[in-house]
Specification:
6-stranded mixed β-sheet, alpha+beta, 1 helix
């Protein structure tokens, strides 16, 4: 008969494994990035920050912290461009960059004093913030003189950088990192 209170080698092995797993879990939880933290490389917007129009992000829009911007080598200097798909076009100005998405599958964010018919079509970034903007009564039409920005290409004008990807377009303020990513399937402001 086994002694009362004695722990066998198999039980000791299981206890050691449990202790190691708990220790690993504690380390993972302590080092996991906090998405709601206001501290970052640029000390910028969080998930609760207002968008370009002064409203808070909606359920269909993901908002993350702005990251430092590194301008890729070989960027073009094109102030007005259209994506190869023809679904997104952008104009880069001195104070802001504005992009228009013609068709999308995400739920547009609600914008104050903006019709549901036009909400979600226009996105804007300034040095201070990025997010959806109300275009007024109708979705703007693309100018005829836009340059096609091939997938993988980027353009900079002044403080703004836009990159064309197969997944959509990413535009940001170089000085602050604020920007947005828009695509047929969804959006993200940072």
């Amino acid at each position: 008969m086994a002694k009362r209170g004695a722990v066998g080698p198999a039980a000791i092995t299981l206890i050691v494994i449990d202790v190691l797993l708990v220790a690993a879990l504690v380390v993972i939880m302590a080092t996991w990035p906090d998405a709601t933290s206001t501290e970052g490389a640029t000390g910028s917007a969080t998930a609760d920050a207002p968008a370009a129009n002064g409203t808070n992000p909606s359920e269909g829009e993901e908002t993350t912290q702005a990251e430092a911007v590194e301008v890729p080598d070989g960027t073009l200097e094109v102030a007005g461009f259209i994506m190869p798909s023809g679904n997104i076009w952008c104009e880069i100005g001195d104070e802001s960059t504005q992009c228009v998405i013609e068709g999308f599958e995400f739920s547009p964010p609600p914008l104050e004093d903006c019709s549901e018919d036009v909400a979600g079509h226009v996105w804007q970034v300034t040095a201070d913030q990025a997010g959806p903007a109300c275009p007024g009564e109708a979705v703007p039409e693309a100018p005829d003189d836009l340059t096609e920005l091939a997938y993988g290409d980027a353009t900079t004008v002044g403080d703004f950088l836009c990159e064309s990807t197969r997944d959509g377009v990413v535009c940001r303020a170089i000085s602050t990192g604020h920007g947005f990513e828009i695509a047929r399937g969804g959006t993200r402001s940072f």
